[in-house]
Amino acid sequence: MPKIDLAPPLPSFLSYKSALVLLPPRAIALPIEAVRGNHDRHFKRWPPHINLIWPFLAQPSTAEPGRAHRTLKDEIRSRIQRATKDIRSFHMNLMADHPGTFQMSKTFTNVHLKPSTDSVEKLQAALQAEFAECDYDKRPFVPHLSLGQVKSAFRLEQLRTRLRESIADHLEPGLDPRLEWHVDAVLVLERKDYNDRFKVVGTIELDRE
């Protein structure tokens, strides 16, 4: 299940302002964002993503002289590379023909896209084993890419309809309408303040399959 931003205090070495994630390629991100913009209350703070570990290590990046952007710390990059050294890039789709749901609260239902392969679970398990200290969330890992939150079955059907329309409007001709994705990198996100949008501070590529 997804984590929320208004959460209990963390140990000092963890932060809700950093995350280890997968980010979809632009070709399939466009129709996803068209839906999230109207339905996801976290749209302004998060890009479309699948969380692998969140909360993650506090202050994972550093500012280098002469560079406008922050860069991932070498020791964190090395740990991610070590965790993923035996994991190859892989193909999957997001099963956009049948979005999943789970109950977030008495009021809201989360609507999301689910990976078509268990390769995401295997990748996350390898990373979790390396970053064993990032274990604040004790719930079983369930990979998903959130589209939004709804309050009723009617709103749920509206979102599903909007997703189909968005795929038809934005997806390039010839691409799989289930939203095919070649996962070839793990990314570290960070934000300065809780209401800021997450930015990529590190990209660690997976070996080609």
From TrEMBL:
Protein name per its UniProtKB record: 2'-5' RNA ligase family protein
SUPFAM superfamilies in UniProt: LigT-like
A Pfam family hit: 2_5_RNA_ligase2
Xref: InterPro entries: Cyclic_Pdiesterase
Domain of life: Eukaryota
